[in-house]
Amino acid sequence: MRRWAAMTAMALALLGAALPGASSAQQRKLPYYASISAGQARMRTGPGREFPASWLYRRADLPVKVIAIYKDWRKVEDPDGTQGWMQANLLSERRTAIVMGSVADMLDTPRFGAKVQWRAAPGVVGRISQCSRGWCWFDVRGRAGFVEANRLWGVGAGEDLS
Fold first, then answer.
1. Residue 66 contacts by C-beta under 8 Å, 6 or more apart in sequence?
2. Whole-angstrom Cα distance, residue 151 to residue 35?
3. Alpha carbon distances (Å) from 143 to 37, 66, 83, 146
């Protein structure tokens, strides 16, 4: 019987090590940015379905900042500063950002005075990559360019992404 229990415990430990997701998220340094992966996602007042929903998001790819972890729940902050809890399976590691303030120029190179490729209005959400030295590659459904990182919510000050 002991042997069976030991083998079962070892198998569960190996299975847990092989599965990505919750365990790797538990090891990430807080806070970190993520995005909403579902077309509809409820924010709750606490980490469980028994807590009332405080907000219903209907915008996949909206960036959020994960500020706490409790089991399969993440306490998040949205671009407006609203905080609450979401199930981890409603979030993605895909990096997105939202334009804040006024219209943001999307440039062909990461420098002032570069050629404007596109312009993005406040509230536009796009995927980000190649963030360094205060600039991020910002892609809105195939229309892309470099945007000043301080114009975007979804990337930390001085954060580098490759």
1. 28, 30, 31, 32, 33, 34, 74, 75, 76, 91
2. 18
3. 21, 28, 31, 11
- Distance, CA of 84 to CA of 76 (rounded, Å): 6
Which pLDDT tens digit goes with each residue over 9-67?
A: 333 343 343 334 444 555 679 999 999 999 999 999 999 999 999 999 999 999 999 99
Q: How far apart are CA 85 and CA 136, in angstroms?
A: 28
Instruction: Give the tokens for residue 40.
Output: 């509809």
Specify the pTM. 0.82
Helix (H) or strand (E) holding 110: none
Task: Read off the amino acid at residue 57.
Answer: Y
